[in-house]
Amino acid sequence: MTETARSQTSNETASYPETGLKIERVFSTEGVHPYDEITWERRDVVQTNWKTGETVFEQLGVEFPEFWSLNASTIVTTKYFRGAVGTPERERGLKQLIDRVVSTYVKAGKEHGYFASAADAEVFEHELTWLLVNQYFSFNSPVWFNVGTTAPQQVSACFILSVDDSMDSILNWYKEEGFIFKGGSGAGLNLSRIRSSKELLSSGGTASGPVSFMRGADASAGTIKSGGATRRAAKMVVLDVDHPDIEEFVETKWREEDKIRALRDAGFDMDLGGKDITSVQYQNANNSVRVNDEFMRAVENGTEFGLRARMTGEVIETVDARTLFRKISEAAWACADPGLQYDDTINAWHTNPETGRITASNPCSEYMSLDNSSCNLASLNLLKFLRDDDTFDAPLFAKAVELIITAMDISICFADFPTEAIGATTRDYRQLGIGYANLGALLMAMGLGYDSEGGRAMAATVTSLMTGTSYRRSAELAKIVGPYNGYARNAEAHNRVMRKHQAANDDVRTLHIADAEVHKLASEEWARVVELGKTNGFRNAQASVLAPTGTIGFMMDCDTTGIEPDFSLVKFKKLVGGGSMQIVNQTVPRALKKLGYDAEKVEAIVAYIAEHGHVVDAPGLKPEHYEVFDTAMGERALKPMGHVLMMAACQPFLSGAISKTVNLPESATVEEIEQIYLESWKLGLKATAIYRDNCKVGQPLADGGGKAKKDAADAADAAAEAKIVEKVVEKVVYAPTRKRLPKSRQARTTSFTVAGAEGYMTSGAHDDGSLGEIFLKLGKQGSTLAGVMDAFSIAVSIGLQYGVPLETYVSKFTNLRFEPAGLTDDPDVRMSQSIMDYVFRRLALDYLPFEERSALGIYSAEERQRHLETGSYEPVEETGNASELLESAPVAKAAPVEAEVVDEDPLAGAPEVKVAKTTAELLEQITGHAVDSPLCLTCGTKMRPAGSCYVCEGCGSTSGCS
């Protein structure tokens, strides 16, 4: 199948215009197909629901590049391979998937006159294939679902609908929204044209108002969501702040949240997915209030604001602006809705005002354009463009952007759309949404704090370069295949917005060589945009957005999604062959090296992070470097305003907006939410959404849902555990057995120095090679120190012989800090925090297998060197032998216990020990604090935030994002 797709792409005939694109070969190698530069391997993809134990998917022997993680290959296999599993039609490897998509793009490019020659078309094919297979970028999910199949060729993930003040239009809204949900996408719309409940109908009766019609749409979305689409239905509902029903709109989800609490307290199952939650309304949409500058100034000044009739535009009621703003913030505090969209800012950057205003957005608030339109997305993996010297490769990034934006425009030539109106608008305005992922990882690897001037300057210049390059290529395409149909009537406005982008770029103040290089190239691109736009026009009405990049972020093996910072410093890594292990993000050691730390200090800091999940008090780490390792969750969680400032740095360089939620702690006040909404407006954001931890009762935690339920469950678990202990004491007498060492045993003696203090360690082993005793000699015979060390040695030796695992001792005594501490004479442990730290690192290296040591962050000098050379600590002979690796529990591992089968199990009904299956669950166990996000409905694990929705890193499912 792969070879067939390749030959079709290469051999089709087409007419090539002399003015067509000449494609430069940058990434691929002439004469070598991109696939032939890669080592491929076969994998078995098996997906299990961790809650039920049920196997929900299985496909054996799928083919992927060896450098793709198991997680990436699992998500691609389960989400994007087409054909029924077990049939010959089923795709069996990544080559088939990429060929299916790329061949369709190349064919359409030829047919529509994009390329100057057949050779240029072939280079385009190879370059696009190379970027995809090497995880430099990804198209949005609908492309992988649909392109090249017998299904409609829908390539867009984002839709905006419209509704007017008539029953025909309202019922048509229900229908169109339903078809979009059925296809697995989401839509948004503004209900402000519908007259309020305070206005009269032409018949003399009172209108129902938009909130009443929201009920029917919400029920429809909930029904279609549960019907088995590729992802949950996602929708955005917007209402203008001057609509007479604005207070009722603001209170809708707030009141329902109170209902959820009351029903929960009465014993009903109100968790997300619970059997009683369906009685609650308005839960299937994100709600946003569209505010204008007039209202926000009234809030600042404490003046009144007029609510206007929909039919006549006259003011029919006045309200105190601050009181209404307070109510919006109180509702957001209580249930996370509504968010705000800043209407005047949005339309000030609108390239097509002569066609119509922008009134709404897609469900995640990043796509903002004309009514009845759509946008296809693609995102670049920023970390791929980081050079070996930890500087950003701006020229290479620009080359990738111009190729990708070309492909995205080609897709509109063959795309299908869910409605005729959406198809017509999209073909006339050709809206694109190029974006990126891994910004948080990029900044950390460069040694830049996410919430720092340097981090924001770097993010701003990269975003500016991306959008500038996109519009420059759009102007070049306009010369070859013509500007978008709506350009002529909007030419003046479009070029004005381009000059606004250029002026914003000029205002960026760079702080170091790395961002100065990017900024210089971005400035050159914007100069060309302004110049080419005057003569050629533009092929696309918009070019860029910052989407959540949930599923496709995992496809590219990104550590961070969209514009987000790193979620946490530790994460789970699935292993080929089965099992998983806890690792510290690989960006961390790279950042430490960039900051000037030597290998020994890097190892010590990484080991500390593996145990504690954060960098506070990490050995040898300077406090001024803590900010580089700030994350979305955990001990050093970013402050809410840090998220807002990062969005503000990037917003002037985006055609659309940014999908991001500003996360607040449970202790946050309504006043803080007011401040975030107000500052977001002042800083020029187009939209802001907030989420306060544990504000939603119907948001299930790993052990139940809502805080009150969690507390009750904890109390019940504690009572159950007490009863179990009592029962065990009553029926089972556990007598540990000592395993004595043989009279003659193998032993090794190690001499060492720590910061000049000399000592000796003798360790004795059982016949099976496991450690059974240690003797430590420090100080003079008869001294207090020598006596204490003798007693300590005896205690540890007896514990070892009674079955205490060595790894337990290692996890407890490594990173213990006291003097003497410093350099050692051991090449494997160059830096030690104390004598105890050294002794148990040495014992781990001598007696623990590689898999258990690596989980504790302990490596030999040879393994560290191998990591520097190959990127892997693992010995060559063990690579891929993952079936021998233990599935790790993230904090402390329990010793394996074998139990005989008895008639009555005294521990029957005991609470299960919860083993983390995802990074979110791992962070919960390390920190002891709950991550407030839902469980995945597919595999049962805890999801993590991505933009303004959630994504499951286990199976790639999302809560509605693209």
What labels describe this entry?
single chain, 962 residues, alpha/beta, Anaerobic Ribonucleotide-triphosphate Reductase Large Chain, 10-stranded mixed beta sheet, 3-stranded antiparallel beta sheet, disordered N terminus, oxidoreductase, nucleotide binding, cobalamin binding, cobalt ion binding
Explain how this protein is built.
With 962 residues, this protein is of the alpha/beta class. Among the domains are: 1-134, no CATH class; 162-348, Anaerobic Ribonucleotide-triphosphate Reductase Large Chain; 377-560 and 650-658, Anaerobic Ribonucleotide-triphosphate Reductase Large Chain (Alpha-Beta Barrel), CATH 3.20.70.20; 747-884, no CATH class. Helix 4 crosses helix 12, helix 8 packs parallel to helix 10 (321-335) and helix 19 crosses helix 20 (599-612). The radius of gyration is 30 Å and the shape is globular. Mean pLDDT is 84; it is low at 1-12, 226-231, 699-734 and 877-913. InterPro entries: RdRp_reductase_class-2 (IPR050862), RNR_2_N (IPR013678), RNR_lg_C (IPR000788), RNR_NrdJ/NrdZ (IPR013344), TSCPD_dom (IPR024434).
